[in-house]
Amino acid sequence: MAVRTVLRLGDPRLRQRAQVVADVRDPALRQLIVDLEDTMAACSGAGLAAPQIGVPLRVVLFGGGGPNPRYPDAPPLPRTLLINPVLTPFGPEREEAWEGCLSVPGLRGRVPRWLRLRYQGIDGEGQPVDRSVEGFHARVVQHECDHLDGLLFPDRLSDPTAFGFIPELEAAGLIPAVPA
Ligand code: NI
User: Fold this and answer.
1) Does 2 reside within a domain?
2) In angstroms, what is the span from residue 5 Cα to ligand 1's centroid?
3) Of 95, 99, 125, 144, which residue is the catalytic one?
């Protein structure tokens, strides 16, 4: 296990533009993938991007592992390791929903995202990934890929007041209470 520290909002490394991965066989990339898996599992994250553990490469991991305790209403996503992702939205439709982030612990905010999109890239074995998705799946991909461009969800709030600490938002009935 190599559970890495997840950087938090304010760390300038979260604000860098990550670099394209040039060689999928690089041993350092193999270690990065293991560290992303171990860290995401330890944090019960819906996803994790390499810059969040201080590695400025275009690599994200999301999904897998059944229902997520941090997002009990979310449908399970296929476990996906995505390198050098390219996102192409389908149509103008956007959808708002509450998001959180391991780098912004304890907070949620309402964020508009493209409802449908295609994402392409390569997986950890160098095989092509090419999926057309919508809803929560599309949201997670957009959130994780934003990390590769130095963006975090508070940058994209639909309304600056639609943002707060989880217990307060739950008490106000704005987000569903997460079972203990
Ligand atoms: Ni995040």
Assistant:
1) no
2) 14
3) 144
Show the beta-strand stretches assigned E in the chain.
47-49, 59-62, 80-89, 94-99, 107-114, 116-122, 128-134, 163-165
Q: What is the CB neighbour count within 10 angstroms for residue 127?
A: 8
Ligand 1 geometric centre to CA of 47 (Å): 7
pTM: 0.93
* pLDDT tens by residue, 106-131: 999 999 999 999 999 999 999 999 99
CATH number of the domain enclosing 17: 3.90.45.10
- Domain interval for residue 77: 12-171
144 is catalytic: yes
Report the chain's mean pLDDT, rounded to a whole number.
93
What is the whole-number distance in angstroms between the Cα of residue 92 and the centre of ligand 1? 24
What is the predicted pLDDT for the residue at 10? Answer: 98
